[in-house]
Amino acid sequence: MPIANYSALSELHGDCALYQGRRASRCSALAPGFHIARLWRWLHHLKQLDIKKLGNTKRRSLSVSKEDLVKLELLYPDRSLPLVARPTFKGVDLAIWTSNNLELVQKNLSKHGAILFRDFGLTTASEFEQFIKVVSPQLLEYRERSSPRTQVFGNIYTSTNHPADQTIFLHNENSYQQTWPMKIFFFCTSPATHGGETPLADCRRVFARLNSKLVERFEKKQVMYVRNFGDGFGLPWETVYNCTDKKSVEEQCRTTGVELEWKENNRLRTRAVRPVLARHPQTRELTWFNHATFFNISTIEEPTREALLAEFSQEDLPTNTFYGDGSPIEASVLDELRDCYLQEQVSFQWERGDLLMVDNMLVAHGRAPFTGPREVLAGMAEGNSERHV
Questions:
Q1: Nearest partner of 90 among 36, 167, 149, judged by Cα
Q2: CA 296, CA 55: separation in Å to the nearest integer?
Q3: For residue 288, what are the CA distances in angstroms to 107, 295, 362?
Q4: Max CA pair span of the chain
Q5: Which of 77, 191, 194, 375 has a CB 3.0–4.6 Å from the CB of 350, allowing a cystine?
């Protein structure tokens, strides 16, 4: 590669050392498929030489892989998730790198179920949104809600606004609905002082742990989700269905296979029967994909559970689950379900700027209690309604 003079070499060396995605075009013209990290090291080596002795140096082509800009490794060697992606040097633009490596990212997401992007210097919600749009162009609106969230802008929300001293059990987002997001994204703008992790569990492995007779029973009976609105607990139906017109609610329920019942004083009860399994459309693997455990009253922490049971019957609780025929799910079955989730649970401490991408059909997520301010944003993408079972 001909270098006009030492000052030009120094300038190019500095540019590459401070490389950022928006300056990539300046370096990319050097050679097709160039590798910026190796180029930087090579230029650094040239700077140590007497340039005058190089003479008529012939151009050398650099045949390297752009994937090497980012290092991929498991966070825990004995666990399959999450896979951690870190830049090999400061300044790699995550959105640009991902755009150039979508196949690699999707392959690893399907294999591991979750990828944690760390140390990319992300700071804003708009950068978070930009990344999601690179992976999945259309973000989804949060519909038929089960938890309170604050809309930041567009379809970027805060994660669940749940009391900080309580645990949110592992679940797959919207798996109680007829349609759910294939991908869910989290972005940490402010980690908690203590706690506040987002635990993960591979639902393929949860399914593999379950007793075969338990699975057969659920496959035959399915699961019924019962929800009650307007009793002073949980979200009002106007928030869940994003309207104030009962006819609109009835139409939404009709098109999504939900049975509804209007009660006195503008209260609403809904019932929906869904399968407990789903087959992933890309990997074709069966996964335990439902809210049978998460919505059941027995999963709620004891003080809150006792207060709710003192106020409501099982049928009138804000959320509860039954077998699809309406019969109660045995306590021993629910204990086994929770135990299988927890045996597969993996946690990590959030760092400011972390971005977590989760395949929602393969991996469940939750939230640990925390102290201090915590802000983790969330976005969802790629709606799907096919269980293929």
A1: 36
A2: 77
A3: 21, 15, 8
A4: 92
A5: 191
Pairing type for strands 114-117 and 83-87 reads parallel
CA distances from 22 to 16, 138, 141, 383 (A): 12, 24, 30, 31
For 150-180, b/e burial (b = at least 16 CB within 10 A) is eebeebbbbbbeeeeeebbbbbbbbbbbeeb
Location of structure tokens 């069966």: 286
Residues 173, 163: Cα–Cα separation, whole Å: 19
Q: By three-state DSSP, how is residue 384 classified?
A: strand
3-state secondary structure of 367: strand
Distance of CA 275 to CAs 171, 387, 388, Å? 15, 8, 11
CB 382, CB 180: distance < 8 Å: no
- Give the Cα separation of 292 and 289 in Å (integer): 9
Helix axes 102-112, 125-135, angle to 10 degrees: 90
> For every one of its 389 residues, what pLDDT tens digit does the chain have, with 9 covering 90 and above?
433 333 333 444 444 434 444 444 434 333 444 455 555 454 444 444 443 444 444 444 333 355 589 999 999 999 999 999 999 999 999 999 999 999 999 999 999 999 999 999 999 999 999 999 999 988 888 655 555 567 777 789 887 778 899 999 999 999 999 999 999 999 999 999 999 999 999 999 999 999 999 999 999 999 999 999 998 887 899 989 989 999 999 999 999 999 999 999 999 999 999 999 999 999 999 999 999 999 999 999 999 999 999 999 999 999 999 999 999 999 999 999 999 999 999 999 999 999 999 999 999 999 999 999 999 999 999 999 988 87
CA end-to-end span of the chain? 58
274 strand-pairing partners: 223
Tokens of 302: 């004891």
- pTM of full prediction above 0.70: yes
Closest by CA position to 119, among listed 96, 81, 95, 91: 91
What kind and span of H or E run contains 135? helix 125-135
Beta-bridge partners for 357? 115, 185
Secondary structure class of 113 (helix, strand, coil): coil
